[in-house]
Amino acid sequence: MKVVTEIGEYRKLRKGMPSPVGFVPTMGYLHQGHLALVQQARAENKTVVVSIFVNPTQFGPKDDLAAYPRDPERDLALLEKEGTDIVFMPSAEEMYPEGFSSWVEVDKVTDRLEGAFRPGHFRGVATIVAKLFNSVQPHRAYFGQKDAQQLIVIKKMVSDLNMDLEVVAVPTVRDPDGLAMSSRNTYLDPEERKAALVLWNALSLAQELWSKGERNAERLRQEMSALIQKEPRAKIDYVSVADPDSLEELSQIEGTALVSMAVRIGKTRLIDNITLG
Amino acid sequence: MKVVTEIGEYRKLRKGMPSPVGFVPTMGYLHQGHLALVQQARAENKTVVVSIFVNPTQFGPKDDLAAYPRDPERDLALLEKEGTDIVFMPSAEEMYPEGFSSWVEVDKVTDRLEGAFRPGHFRGVATIVAKLFNSVQPHRAYFGQKDAQQLIVIKKMVSDLNMDLEVVAVPTVRDPDGLAMSSRNTYLDPEERKAALVLWNALSLAQELWSKGERNAERLRQEMSALIQKEPRAKIDYVSVADPDSLEELSQIEGTALVSMAVRIGKTRLIDNITLG
């Protein structure tokens, strides 16, 4: 496994890489969710590239950029074990040199949900992902279904801008009790960790109601919200039952629906989702 | 020479193309200025790809999109003669399918000059050029120095977004009397054609004053403006003496300066520039 910090150095290596190249972009502090992406990339490609970069432009002024957890040594050990070929670990200066001023913006699907609560977030995500794609030049890129809206934004960007690669969605990995894996789970104290289960419980409730034939989206939102509100440590940012392409809120579920939520547990903001249908 | 209208079809051909691939993006209605780009691409690459696409997103609501001159048959004959390998001629629907919503925006250098007079123009330019680069996948791309700000915007985009190609600037081709070649020259009636020479005369005056030691940028702007204003058919949008990287207006010329202007001759808006130093 080779660790590369500069794009120029990477480009030289890129020429000799066996194809196809699978790529997993991460912000580090890896958990089983990330490793599932790496494992799938390993299974499907001749070369596996993982990036570790805590991207400042996707954090808002009130977000947790400075506090975002980091443990590069542990990350590298985990990636080595998974058979990663190249780890791309650029500095902030390498990715955003003085005078940087070009951005990729995806309109419309970024107006809602996470986009509405985190202005500028998806501009930062789309821009860094475009930069990483252009640098790494993968055939396939792997993203977790847990960040459902991010996945939609990136697929839209790739399609609209004619980027020549395949975006692969990988199912969310959960703790045994259902909590979706997230680097931010590390912020939770033991009481909050228990309270955080309310996200999965609400999603499970939606799944159950849907299985019993409930197709009224507002009813699902209400039932999930009521369940979450019973947990005193939880504060809802949004609870959504939306069209999985446009992210428009549904009134009636006809085909598939993306059920998603953002809930703050103490100071930690968690997101999760499932797809119905 | 092969004419390709779909990206999927192009991608298949791309795999078999001898490297390096040189690319000339155009809006068609080709003149000697375009052909100089093609000639340089031909001299420097194994494969030459030219695109013809009148990009709707770079025209404003009051711009001349519908009236923009087109003559694809003549264009193809000219490109064949120059030894072009592939002409990529997509439809508007191919490049902007229903629901298109991703954009590349370059900030700051787009605030001034053309950007100030044509809001959204450079967003359209950067977006289509990014799409064409991602589709065509060239090693080198050729742009005319005549669109000086466009060249700066594209170089900035390529650098900021880590696009893996070289942007090559090609000197402006002029009619024998000095008028810069432009597809829009075709709009000029005989009297306007004469009046249009005022752009080159003003640039020549700046060059002459600079050669004699004038380094006061405001003096150059004044002298050029005074000359242009003597021509009753000419209306100035801007006359600029600016830093060639930031496009900030200079007060004193210390290193190099980009002298540029936009002047309306009747209903036709013309731009031109030279670099001093």
What does this protein look like?
2 copies of one chain form a homodimer. The first copy, chain A, contains 10 helices and 10 strands. Chain A has 277 residues and is an alpha/beta fold. The mean pLDDT of chain A is 98. Chain A is globular and about 55 Å long. In chain A, the strands form 2 sheets. A 6-stranded parallel beta sheet of chain A has the order 1-4-3-2-6-7, sandwiched between helices. In chain A, strands 8-9-10 form a 3-stranded antiparallel beta sheet. Chain A has 2 domains: 2-170, HUPs (Rossmann fold); 183-271, Pantoate--beta-alanine Ligase, Chain: A,domain 2 (2-Layer Sandwich). Chain A has helices at 7-15, 32-44, 72-81, 92-95, 113-117, 121-136, 148-160, 190-195, 197-211, 217-229, and strands at 2-4, 21-26, 47-52, 86-88, 102-106, 140-144, 166-170, 234-242, 257-265, 268-276.
